[in-house]
Amino acid sequence: MHASFPVDVDLALVGGGGAASLVLAALDRHDVTGLRVAVVDPVHKRGQDRTWAFWGRPGDDLDPLLSASWSQVDVVTPAGRRVLPLHPLRYAMLRSAPVYDRAAEAERRLDAVRVSAPAGELRDDGERVTVCDPDGRELVRAGWVLDSRPRRPSRPGRTSWLQHFRGWWLAADRPTFDPQRAVLMDFRTPQPQRGVSFGYVLPVDDRFALVEYTEFGPELLDDAGYDTALRGYADLLGLDLSALRVREVEDGVIPMTDGRFESRPSPRVVRLGTAGGATRPSTGFTFSAMLRQADQVARALAAGRPPVPAPAYPGRHLWMDAVALRALDRGHVGGVEFFERLFDRNPPERVLRFLDGVTSPAEDLAVMRSSPLLPMTGAVLGDAAGRLRARLRR
């Protein structure tokens, strides 16, 4: 806890998780100097508390931090296994500990102030932002605030699902996994009545891998439900759990909604991460957009510009996601069929770039053509009607 309040800085990071850690690392990487920085969070993140998986081109700044990466991945359905070559991209696994370590080193180099207290209200007068604690005491006064605390969308979605999951880090005493092959999505899992489920496997080496069960849908499972699903998926993989050790367990819940997240709630407050729209509504993927946001913030500050990143995804992608969510939620199209056609009728690189939100309009049209025409047309019309009703209510 800093002894003298309020602390006066140029930039305050409210929330010290993944989004803030990536910003700190980016500030260091872009050699931003002379910037007074504060980090406001009651918890100083350290160690392994989550795993991010993402795709990108090899040779970037994150390469030394990766636990593993793969040049091809498998997509499995009841009909068979499809091997997807990813060149020039690669699929990568990044655990949280090296990210937090790099952020801590960046904090030291930036001489950042760590305020170990929970943040409450942000009072923005257009010139400075005052960060208060939940009792109203002033903690920090900053020129800009980057707020990555989780929050609900400012406008509820017409469709609101969740990506929820549990993963086991499994350790074996003898070679058990193929470190050259990651399973991106395995749809042989029993499908929920409303939603879609899949398993995946990310091997670090031949004796250590993350095996995870994921659902997209409106309802969470209880602990027994996730463990039952994971045991069932291990059976599908032919794994003998009695011969393996569960070294770690990871759980998570990520919003999948066409609700609106307000990325700029006031003139000098910018939201990052899920709160800033970094989560892709149709998949729950977040990391690549967080990484882009961090890089854009650091580049802007290095050039003397306001630290305001571009929207995480183009507006047309958010519309496509709203339509896809509606089609899946209303049962117009099955989840397995939807993703199977997506990977079957498009080059792998196009699919991955689309999910990252960086495809061109022409590529987006190709992706749209790969979806079932009549069901998706119904979803488009239903989405348009929902938007009109919402507008009339407002």
Low-pLDDT segments, ≥5 res: none
Q: Tell me the Rg in angstroms.
A: 22 Å
Distance between the termini: 45 Å
Which percent bin holds the helix content? 25-40%
Structural class: alpha/beta
Spatial shape: globular
- SSE run: EHEEEEEEHEEEEEEEEHEEHHHHHH
Question: Can you tell me about this structure?
Answer:
A hairpin with a 4-residue loop joins strand 9 and strand 10. The chain has nine helices and 17 strands. Strands 1, 2, 8, 9, 10, 11 and 17 form a seven-stranded mixed beta sheet that branches. Helix 1 packs across helix 2, helix 1 runs parallel beside helix 4 and helix 5 packs across helix 9. It is an alpha/beta fold and 394 residues long. The chain is globular and about 60 Å long. The termini are far apart.
Give the structure's gist in a few sentences.
The mean pLDDT is 93. By secondary structure, this protein is α/β, with parallel strands linked by helices.
Present the secondary structure layout:
Blueprint lengths: L6 E8 L3 H12 L7 E4 L10 E6 L11 E3 L1 E6 L2 E6 L4 E6 H15 L2 E3 L6 E3 L4 E4 L5 E10 L12 E13 L9 E5 L9 E10 L2 E10 L5 H15 L6 E14 L11 E3 L15 H16 L12 H15 L5 H10 L3 H9 L4 H9 L3 H21 L1
Parallel strand pairs: 1-2, 1-11, 2-8, 5-13, 11-17
Antiparallel strand pairs: 3-7, 4-7, 5-6, 9-10, 10-11, 12-15, 12-16, 13-14, 14-15
Helix pairs in contact: 1-2, 1-4, 5-9
